[in-house]
Fold this protein.
Amino acid sequence: MPQLTCVDPNEQAINVAFEPGETILQATHRAGVDGILAECGGGCSCATCHVILTSDWEGTLDAPSLQEADMLSFAVDSTPQSRLACQVQLNGQHDGLTLAVAKRQY
């Protein structure tokens, strides 16, 4: 099973196994990663599943949708590498990649 490394807000690295087709949100919730609130339940209507992707994700994802980009404008400490975990669908290309959970979700 492919996996990614997720650095939680306490700087702890957690290996998260995922099924291709899952979102980052689904995989990290199943793995019990702390810090991803996802108050809207994954509906892209809040910014409380804010994650920050590392440079190794470059070229593996489409740009955020207009709705996701709008929600990210409300995220605390958003960066150019910020994404909403509910909007990033994982595939085999993502095996071994790293991301960080934003330290503050609201």
Observations:
- The chain has two helices and five strands.
- The mean pLDDT is 96.
